[in-house]
């Protein structure tokens, strides 16, 4: 696994993550489980729901090669495992939501990324 400092280098605070997601230049993945997604719905345009194991399988098949990928989870814990897979992949760039959806909510954003 990577250090906290290495993970921080590829993690964006909610406002920045939302801005990048809305720019349209990134594939956006919500890797939370169904129960967590039901508690708080993220409705960013183009956002895809994908279980982490499914995401990793797609990554290994090269489906995201050359693409820019944003990933969000509940509290920012799952992303440390994904960092390992993404760092060894051929994606063009990747970023995580720092603090997960819990931080998104604490920062006052609704499911559409608006305040």
Low-confidence stretches: none
Total helical segments = 6
Q: Which value, in Å, is the CA radius of gyration?
A: 13 Å
First CA to last CA: what distance? 34 Å
**Residue fraction in strands:** 15-25%
Return the string of H and E elements: HEHEHEHEHEH
Q: Any idea what the shape is?
A: globular
Largest sheet: 5 strands, parallel
Helix coverage percent:
40-55%
Mean residue pLDDT: 92
Find the count of extended strands (DSSP E, 2+ residues). Answer: 5
Strand order of the largest sheet: 1-5-4-2-3
| SS content category | alpha/beta
Describe this protein's structure.
Strand 2 (27-30), helix 3 and strand 3 (48-49) form a beta-alpha-beta unit. Strands 1-5-4-2-3 form a five-stranded parallel beta sheet. The protein has helices at residues 4-9, 14-23, 34-39, 52-60, 79-87, 100-106, and strands spanning 11-12, 27-30, 48-49, 68-72, 93-97. By secondary structure, it is of the alpha/beta class. Helix content is 41%, strand content 16%. It is built from six helices and five strands, in the order αβαβαβαβαβα. The longest helix has 10 residues, at 14-23.
Would you summarize the structure shown here?
The chain has 115 residues and is of the alpha/beta class.
